[in-house]
């Protein structure tokens, strides 16, 4: 044994080798050990990496070569193989069987390559985990997209599923956030408590379940930063998705919105913009400013309307253009930020409600219907802000509205 250790020490130098690995060198001659070492170095493994997988030096060189070649045919690069070096000493049949089974689940070779550690797992574990995930309501397609779950500890998956259920997540919601099933249970619990401390209810947390899997420090730092921008805890809770965003994205978006001329107060009331892609906001801004200009010769004349109604920066150009066209078609000035915030279809529903509930349109003789429609449009043109109210608000003030329409 001392001789064999001498060869290994000669090859690996001062690299640390765990004592249990020495048993793998028994019965192996120096040439075999040296040959395996050369192969591993050729495949890109450093001495330190070989030391952490020292049992490889005791394997048959042909077995190492065959496994390497097979992994290459699956699309794994030498760099990927080096990061999953334990695969080189696995039983080739086990790797092939796992590969075949993963293929039947819908994983492509590229996906398998990205989750190469699965090839070295016990085939029964993979099958049992697949079945457990199916039992939780995940389709094979979903499982394929979150293939790392197949290699997780079944108890972790089961416990996480149970905990997520206690938070109010349905099986369908859990399926859409399936990666949570493989997260460290303590991370999920700590994040849940942190989100509760920020004022989020379990119902809100369930609707933003992806936050449970985020880095706790990211959540803490984003919350602190949003507070410095003037957002209250209740506002942050209503826009909880911001807490899980990349901090740099939030900072860059805030700076961009400031550069456009928005105040911190305006940004905080339109906090959803902080989660948008800056390029998208820029594109919307340029389009809207041109579309809403009041002076045709001054393209920037629509800027003030945008800055005073910053929520418009979240409305796609198509929707904005449709709004302008619709308001123009019914004779209403579209330079009104309150009216541009909803789709034309929403405005049509409100008009239909007013015809039906305020003008009793269904009970009016056919030859009077056109006249009633004209009265409605007259009413709306003189009271355009009514189209900015919600249907619920209109329903609550129906009696007052009935009195007002008597003037039209």
In short:
By secondary structure, this protein is mainly alpha-helical. It has helices at residues 2-12, 30-42, 47-52, 61-73, 78-83, 92-104, 109-114, 123-135, 140-145, 154-166, 171-176, 185-197, 202-207, 216-228, 233-238, 247-260, 264-269, 278-291, 303-308, 317-329, 344-357, 366-382, 391-396, 398-404.
Helix coverage percent of residues?
55-70%
**Roughly what is the average pLDDT, rounded to an integer?**
86
Largest sheet: none
Count of helical stretches: 24
* Through-space gap between termini: 105 Å
**What does the radius of gyration come to?**
32 Å
Order of helices and strands: HHHHHHHHHHHHHHHHHHHHHHHH
Report the uncertain regions: none
Q: What amount of the residues lies in strands?
A: under 5%
Strand count: 0
Describe the structure.
Helix content is about 60%, strand content about 0%. Among the domains are: about 1-90, no CATH class; about 340-408, no CATH class. It is built from 24 helices and no strands. It is elongated and about 105 Å long. With about 400 residues, the protein is an all-alpha fold.
